[in-house]
């Protein structure tokens, strides 16, 4: 018997549609736990989890920490700013030190693509990728999928367009994998300089104009414009970007249907998204945040359980 | 494959009579309907609680609040529950303080499920009293837990399996003992 998700959660590219659905289904009952008066269940009691954040994060770190605490795990937060030490070396050392302290799980965010996998291959603890460079951010995509399923009742056949800096976005990458695996129709829209080359080859539609994307889509997932991109010359100016690609009330009013508005945060109001859209009736941005805790609880719970070496004991203890 | 020894412990009519007896016993145990809450343990305990509540309603015209409890997250064997845990819905009617909660489950065996249910209920409030009502008590407890109301008591061996089938989930009402399963 193999564990349902394997040892680590690195990216949605590695998961089957069935595994992704299992995580979403497992997240459902965890939503209710967060609505309880006592928001805590003992499922991960005695587990030690390290949140290892090499990159700034507020929402994701807090969301993971709530998820861990609501499952009764003991947590330690390690936030390291930029280190002068060469990154690979730092990680190996850090990993060895963590192992020596007998931890059970590591949640890692790192600026280098592949960092989570690198760590997972070197320690016995479960590793959860909370964003690695431009590679993947699986729990963000999972909470996006859950939110789409909540609002549309399904994912298969739903038309989802990712808007903005798709090229540098690990959120977009994870979303595209997850959406395609679950049978959604996927499109991207943004400046030519911020579209990955050859993306049409994996079955993703490319819209050059935001008006076309809005006309087509059931869901717009509007990515944060990473402001450092402007300095590097990918876009001419923020004002220009908003004028051409900004999601505004005026543009949405011309859509043939109500378009669900999503954003992984943090938002640049008035750059990629109009404030009135972000706070409008079809925005599910705060539902995404609520679902984030439930999805992370589901991932932690599934990774902690179902270890193959204990499968025999499972057969004995499963029915009472 | 070796032949398995299956015997029917309760057929549909016997199961219906057992539920009727349990419904009466619950009313004797908890005469004040205003404070009574039936809480079924996922999964079949939930349907059994519905049935018992319906019987009480039919006989006495009082509507008993009911709830559902999934104890998966309170188990003491997370790492051994197998690769694909299914967590059911937990929904409890309002505040449990000052209520008499009757836990309903299909089979009482090791007692670990009930232990988990007691822990979980404690996180929802402080009931005045908690009682336990099961359709089948198959013995072989691993914890000091006993039921207040039992539909059927049966002696079993460790390798046996007691299967409760109910129409809502399984298309048939019956309780089956499978000898020396596994």
Describe the structure.
The complex is a heterodimer of chains A (320) and B (182). Chain A is an alpha/beta fold and 320 residues long. Chain A folds into 2 domains: 12-136 and 289-309, Rossmann fold (3-Layer(aba) Sandwich); 138-286, Rossmann fold (3-Layer(aba) Sandwich). Chain A is 41% helix and 14% strand. In chain A, the strands form 2 sheets. Chain A has a 5-stranded parallel beta sheet. In chain A, strand 3 (105-110), helix 4 and strand 4 (126-132) form a beta-alpha-beta unit. In chain A, helix 1 crosses helix 12 (285-304), helix 5 (138-152) crosses helix 6 and helix 5 (138-152) crosses helix 12 (285-304). The longest helix of chain A is centred in the last third of the chain and has 20 residues, at 285-304. The radius of gyration of chain A is 20 Å and the shape is globular. The two termini of chain A are 21 Å apart. Chain B has 182 residues and is an alpha/beta fold. Chain B has a single domain (18-76, 87-157), classed as Rossmann fold. Chain B is built from 4 helices and 8 strands, in the order E-H-E-H-E-E-H-E-E-E-H-E. Chain B has helices spanning 12-29, 44-60, 112-122, 167-170; strands at 5-10, 36-41, 66-69, 100-108, 129-137, 149-153, 161-165, 174-179. Chain B has a 5-stranded parallel beta sheet with strand order 3-2-4-5-6. In chain B, helix 1 packs across helix 2. The longest helix of chain B is centred in the N-terminal third of the chain and has 18 residues, at 12-29. The termini of chain B are close together. In chain B, 42% of the residues are buried. The model of chain B has no long low-confidence stretch (mean pLDDT 91). Classes of the chains: A alpha/beta (320), B alpha/beta (182). The A-B interface holds A 1-4, 22, 26, 28-30, 32-33, 36-38, 40-44, 71, 301-302, 304-307, 310-311, 313-320 and B 70, 72-75, 77-85, 87-91, 107, 109-113, 119-120, 123-125, 161, 182.
């Amino acid at each position: 018997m193999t564990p349902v998700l394997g040892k680590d959660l690195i990216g949605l590219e590695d998961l089957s549609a069935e595994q992704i659905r299992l995580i979403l289904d497992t997240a459902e009952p965890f939503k209710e736990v967060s609505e309880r008066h006592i928001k805590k269940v003992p499922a991960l009691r005695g587990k030690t989890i390290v949140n290892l954040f090499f990159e700034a994060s507020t929402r994701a770190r807090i969301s993971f920490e709530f998820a861990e605490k609501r499952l009764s795990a003991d947590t330690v937060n390690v936030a390291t700013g930029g280190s002068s030490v060469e990154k690979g070396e730092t990680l190996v050392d850090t990993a060895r030190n963590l192992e020596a302290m007998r931890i059970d799980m590591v949640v890692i965010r790192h600026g280098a693509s592949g960092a989570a996998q690198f760590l997972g291959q070197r320690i016995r603890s479960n590793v959860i990728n909370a964003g690695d460079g431009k590679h993947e951010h699986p729990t963000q995509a999972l909470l996006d999928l859950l939110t789409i399923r909540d609002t549309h009742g399904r994912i298969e056949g739903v038309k989802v367009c990712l808007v903005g800096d798709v090229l540098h976005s690990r959120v977009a990458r994870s979303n595209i994998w997850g959406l395609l695996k679950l049978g959604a129709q996927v499109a991207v829209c943004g400046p030519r300089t911020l579209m990955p080359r050859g993306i049409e080859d994996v079955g993703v539609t490319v819209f050059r104009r935001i008006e076309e994307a809005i006309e087509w889509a059931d869901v717009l997932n509007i990515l944060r414009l990473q402001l450092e991109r402007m300095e590097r010359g990918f876009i001419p100016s923020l004002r220009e970007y908003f004028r051409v690609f900004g999601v505004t009330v005026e543009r949405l009013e011309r859509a043939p249907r109500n378009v669900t508005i999503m954003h992984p945060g943090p938002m640049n109001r008035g750059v990629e998204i109009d404030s009135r859209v972000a706070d409008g009736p079809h925005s599910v941005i705060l539902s995404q945040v609520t679902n984030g805790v439930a999805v992370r609880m589901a991932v932690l719970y599934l990774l902690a359980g179902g270890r193959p070496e204990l499968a025999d004991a499972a057969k004995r203890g499963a029915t009472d | 494959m070796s032949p398995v020894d299956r015997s029917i412990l309760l057929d549909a009519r016997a199961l219906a009579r057992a539920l009727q007896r349990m419904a009466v016993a619950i009313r004797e145990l908890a005469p004040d309907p205003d404070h009574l809450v039936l809480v079924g343990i996922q999964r079949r305990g939930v349907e059994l609680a519905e049935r018992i509540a319906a019987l009480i309603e039919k006989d006495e015209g009082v509507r008993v609040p009911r709830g559902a409890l999934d104890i998966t997250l309170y188990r003491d064997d997370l790492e051994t529950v197998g690769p694909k845990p299914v967590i059911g819905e937990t929904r409890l009617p309002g505040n449990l303080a000052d209520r008499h909660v009757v836990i309903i489950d299909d089979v009482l065996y090791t007692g670990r499920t009930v232990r988990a249910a007691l822990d979980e209920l404690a996180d929802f409030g402080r009931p005045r009293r908690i009682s336990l009502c099961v359709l089948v008590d198959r013995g072989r407890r691993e914890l000091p837990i006993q039921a207040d109301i039992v539909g059927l008591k049966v002696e079993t061996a460790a390798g046996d399996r007691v299967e409760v089938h109910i129409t809502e989930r399984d298309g048939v009402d019956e309780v089956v003992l499978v000898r020396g399963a596994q």
